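Worked example 2:
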Amino acid sequence: MPDARITVESDFPIGAGLGGSSAVCVASLAALAAVRGETVQPTKLAEMSREIEVTDLGVAGGRQDHYAAAYGGALGLRFLAGRVDVKRLPLRGKMRSELERRCFVVYTGQSRISGDTITAVLNGYKNGEPHVLFALKRMRETAEQMADALVAGNIDGLGSLIDEQWKHQRSLHPAIPTPQIDEIITRVRAVGALGAKALGASGGGCVLIIARSDRTEAVGKIAASLGQLIPVVIDEVGVERCL
């Protein structure tokens, strides 16, 4: 095929912990495939995108963001030897609209590159550091419980699990929490947040907040005073062929 030029536009800040680089790579691959008249399955798109980011560009990272961009919707991902099992999690009834109403994402204004933090955590895992092994084990267990909460439509339970998950995530490496992240989480909890955590590898980026059903206005007001609110809209489709 002839040379191609790709222009990327985004409303989101760079290094915000929202999986933007993975989404751009998945979208670029899908666009190039469309130009060639090809259809590429979501799993292949995700794996190709991850290979480019990790191997070609040398940026350490996992697979979850690539799969989220390729598939869309709520996913239960299980990483096994040589494959990834993808399970779509149905959002029952008004679950989608309630999630969008009660979830807030606030950008701290501190961009960060996730590769160094991820590499440090991976090294701790490879070296068998007890606190890293314990934290990763509990994060996996709470992730499985989060999937169950989503399917059951239990947003209160999801908020509590996110709160617990952050306690383990922040223990993985000193660079993960920041004073600003801690302030945001402390202050939204005080006015009715059930749970909050930094997104991505942290060290900056964005914070996800889930409010009590009757405290969304108060939580949103405090969150907006502490950073830039990013609109929360659940995409259920993933990457689309537009040609």
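The domain at 95-230 is CATH 3.30.70.890 (Alpha-Beta Plaits). The first helix runs from residue 20 to 35.
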